[in-house]
Specification:
Blueprint (H helix, E strand, L loop, with lengths): L14 E9 L14 H19 L11 E9 L6 E3 L11 E2 H6 L3 E3 L2 E3 L11 H17 L10 E6 L11 H11 L2 E2 L2 E2 L1 E7 L7 E2 L10 H9 L5 H9 L11 E5 L1 H11 L4
Helix pairs in contact: 1-7, 3-4, 6-7
Length: 271
């Protein structure tokens, strides 16, 4: 296994980020003190982080380099089996898209800012099927070209509730995620980050190393399946005011709108 600290993400050695976004009916609820629903806040946050990723790929000469490839998988929206690529417009039905193609084909441009996805909130929460699609994408991506010499894929899952297709004791979902965690490049295994967002006021759990006295079994599952943050992610989280330890996991429970934005930016900055 190579040392991740020696890796530079480039157009020759890109990084894959897969965003799994909950589009179920409960996402139509207001997001805490925010003025919009969870679905709208999530779509805004995803569009913002895509834009930020693209800006980081602009070279000193002003050229947009294909340093990142992105996938957005929406789950919910169309019922229990509603899992699909969330890209729209010219990118509809595409799964993994290079950052240059993403910037070439926004859905719309509003106030000089590109928009790629719209908010949706309908149906159930087929999270297991979303992770199944993420596993397929990561497997194929790792096996293509020189990608074994690239940063391992990053999966960022954003949800506001329990999966409706997880099986008894969440076994289906757990098994799917464990298969993903077995995938690797020469720089390590796939990264999985889970954030549970909530409109309820309650204790927030932010990048923990363990969960104590938590009776929420699904919260426990999301924690257990999240992987530890790497050194750069930890530094970014600390710079944003989070107090965390070196073995902190990529996990937030009962996150608010600010946590969501921070979480996406931390997870999308691997090196």
């Amino acid at each position: 296994m190579f040392d991740l600290r020696n890796l530079t993400i480039s157009s020759t050695n890109p990084c894959l980020i897969v965003y799994l976004i909950d589009q179920s009916g409960s996402m139509n609820e207001k997001f805490g003190n925010a003025s919009h629903t969870k679905a709208i806040e999530l779509a805004n946050a995803i569009n913002d982080v895509i834009y930020e990723v693209g800006l980081r790929c602009i070279s000193g000469g002003g050229e947009l380099k294909n340093r990142f490839e992105l996938a957005i998988i929406g789950y919910g929206k169309d019922g229990q089996n509603g899992v699909q690529s969330a890209w729209e417009g010219a990118l509809t039905n595409k799964w993994v898209v290079s950052i240059k193609n993403i910037f070439d084909y926004p859905l719309v441009v509003e106030n000089d800012k590109p928009i790629w996805i719209k908010p949706y909130s309908n149906g159930a929460t087929p999270m297991t099927k979303a992770f199944e699609n993420a596993r397929r994408l990561c497997t194929d991506w790792i096996q293509w070209g020189n990608h074994r010499d690239c940063h391992p894929p990053i999966i960022i899952n954003i949800t506001d509730g329990e999966a409706t297709d997880a099986g008894n004791g969440f076994n289906f979902l757990r098994n799917e995620i464990e298969q993903i965690k077995a995938l690797s490049t020469n720089y390590g295994t796939v990264n999985i980050l889970n954030i549970h967002i909530s409109s309820r006021i309650g204790d927030r759990i932010l990048f923990p190393t363990e969960l104590r006295d938590n009776n929420d079994k699904f919260a426990q599952l999301l924690f257990e399946t999240a992987t530890p943050l790497n050194e750069n992610m930890i530094r970014l989280a600390q710079n944003r005011g989070y107090n965390l330890q070196s073995n902190a996991r990529g996990y937030i429970f009962n996150g608010n709108a600010t946590d969501l934005i921070n979480f996406l930016n931390i997870g999308s900055n691997p090196v």
